[in-house]
């Protein structure tokens, strides 16, 4: 038997971006939600890898490389710049009441 923890429906805003570098092409979905403690859900459409990110997380390009399987630091830095214009700064909010 399982114990339900939550069951929430929410209207979200989704932004799709695609860009190419000298090394690769990238396609991402960015899901803006009030869930996940205010972090934004970023999904690589090619690999299915995803991460919850805020503006602070974008400064850690090693983390971006790990989460999205990016081969080189330059590409991770380019992804960071691309996402920085689209991911808001985290505002501390209560997740559960």
Looking at this protein, list some descriptive labels.
4-stranded antiparallel beta sheet; elongated; alpha+beta
How would you characterize the overall build of this protein?
- Helix 1 packs across helix 2.
- The protein has a 4-stranded antiparallel β-sheet, with no helix packed on it.
- Strand 3 (40-44) and strand 4 (50-53) form a beta hairpin.
- The mean pLDDT is 89.
- The protein contains 2 helices and 4 strands, in the order ββββαα.
- The longest helix is centred in the last third of the chain and has 12 residues, at 73-84.
- It is elongated.
- Helices cover 21% and strands 26% of the residues.
- It is of the alpha+beta class and 97 residues long.
- The relative contact order is 0.19.
- It has one domain.
- The two termini are 26 Å apart.
- The chain has helices at residues 61-68, 73-84, and strands at residues 13-20, 25-32, 40-44, 50-53.
């Amino acid at each position: 038997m399982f114990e339900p923890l939550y069951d929430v429906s929410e209207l979200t805003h989704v932004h799709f971006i695609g860009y190419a570098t000298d090394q690769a092409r990238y396609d991402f979905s960015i899901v803006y939600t009030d869930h996940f403690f205010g972090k934004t859900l970023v999904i690589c459409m090619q690999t299915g890898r995803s991460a919850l990110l805020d503006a602070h997380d974008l400064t850690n390009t090693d983390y971006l490389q790990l989460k999205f399987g990016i081969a080189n630091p330059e590409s991770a830095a380019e992804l960071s710049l691309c996402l920085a214009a689209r991911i808001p700064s985290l505002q501390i909010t209560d997740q559960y009441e």
